[in-house]
Amino acid sequence: MNQLRNIGAKQNKRYFGTDGMRGRVNIAPMTPEIVMRLAMAVGYYFKKQNKIKTKRVIIGKDTRLSGYMLEPALTSAFISLGYDVLLLGPVPTPGVSMLTRSLRADIGVMLSASHNPFADNGIKIFDSHGCKLNDETELEIENYMEQEIPLIASDMVGRAKRLEDVPGRYIEYLKAQLPRGIRLNNIKIVVDAAHGAAYKIAPAIFWELGAEVITTGVHPNGTNINEKCGATHPDHIAQIVKDNKADLGIALDGDADRIQLIDSKGNLYSGDDILAIIATYWRTHQKLLGHAVVSTIMANMGFEHYLKTLGLGLWRTQVGDRYVAEKMIAEGCNLGGEPSGHIIMNDYTNTGDGVMSALQILACLRDGNRDLSDFANLYQKTPNYSRNFRFEVMKDGSSRNLLAIQDVQKVIIEQGDRLQQNNARLIIRESGTEPVVRIMAEGSDENLLNDSVNNIYETIEKHNFM
Predict the structure, then answer these.
(1) CA 263, 269, 275, 276: dihedral to nearest 10 degrees?
(2) 154 catalytic, yes or no?
């Protein structure tokens, strides 16, 4: 069993992580100055690559208070280079991807820190095809951030305006992807929008399709996004589902690009479970391409074994839905995702889409007259145990490299070898979206998993204060 350490590293990138640029607001890199430099570098890069056709940029955001500060910084930077900017307001990240394509924009920008607390914010960049940028492009953009970008003449600066009825455009697009004749009549759904970008869109689409909708997490105030709700706190919606005898619970995160599901009995369905259900359904209907599913190193081994029983393979990538999307294209697959709930179905979208994923699951249930709880024991999960160590970030954005400390590396090697000898695996990585070291062990001996992870965690904790 392979040991995997430090996978998902930033590849010498200063600003970009696994999903765009992200961090605590007013601490580098999420300051107005750096955000403007980033936007100018992005705009300049696309011009240098001769990828400009419409001179149009679209900017969406979630509901964070800091959006009011950073959205104008982005807008000013693009306008100074001659781009016209369309402001979308609150909209899910996959909505920005879709609208970048449909509005023929050269660049799409999403201002969001996804599942992070409200004090964080981030920037995700899309090309004209609605795809996230690859590592090589991000490195080149970072190089431009250190240079002086030439501005255009004063009579050639761009304009900005707000686009009307963004929610309606996205809702109609989502509804059009459902198989003809699928309705959600006589089904009760609880929707938790995490006080985030989908707080209007998600309840509306399920109601328009005929469902009885109970809502929670739909009253954003700028500081309550992801706060004890949404995909990162599914216990909140699980209780509401049981209290209201609902058929299904749908928990989204702050920018609605990931999802967790709850069935009528309160069982939780992670990204692995959702991928397993869709893969089973699509395989039966000869819709699954590539004879495989794409996920990350974090995918459960039990999920991989289940796919093998279906005659399907599993391609694993480093953490990050854009790496999953790239691998899907390379291997000719149309289904991929992450255990965290990013589900990519590239017949419909180029990035994770929580609402689209829920609709595809509902189509599967409606078509077979099934309840989600019928899939509660679809496969046997391999036990795992994980802990996250949150470290301090300085005002200049720097932090101590805890994984480079000799004693930490020593205990990682010792515990990794110990796990490997017992057919278990160890994954340790620094998150690309938060100041967190993630430690996870997976195997059949739960006591061993707990002991190994705790040993590593306690060693990191000890050296963090030295």
Answers:
(1) -80
(2) no
**Rounded to whole angstroms, what are the CA distances from 71 to 59, 96, 101, 132?**
8, 14, 21, 19
Contact by Cβ (8 Å): 315, 296: no
Report CA-CA distances (Å) from 391 to 121, 394, 436, 455. Answer: 18, 10, 6, 17
pLDDT in tens, the chain (466 residues): 444 443 334 457 889 988 899 999 999 999 999 999 999 999 999 999 988 999 999 999 999 999 999 999 999 999 999 999 999 999 999 999 999 999 999 999 999 999 999 999 999 999 999 999 999 999 999 999 999 999 999 999 999 999 999 999 999 999 999 888 899 999 999 999 999 999 999 999 999 999 999 999 999 999 999 999 999 999 999 999 999 999 999 999 999 999 999 999 999 999 999 999 999 999 999 999 999 999 999 999 999 999 999 999 999 999 999 999 999 999 999 999 999 999 999 999 999 999 999 999 999 999 989 999 999 999 999 999 999 998 877 666 667 788 888 999 999 999 999 999 999 999 998 887 778 899 999 999 999 999 999 999 999 988 875 4
From the candidates 80, 112, 114, 270, which is the catalytic residue? 114
- pTM, two decimal places: 0.91
The burial of 9, by beta-carbon neighbours within 10 Å (0-12 exposed, 13-18 middle, 19 or more buried), is given as: middle
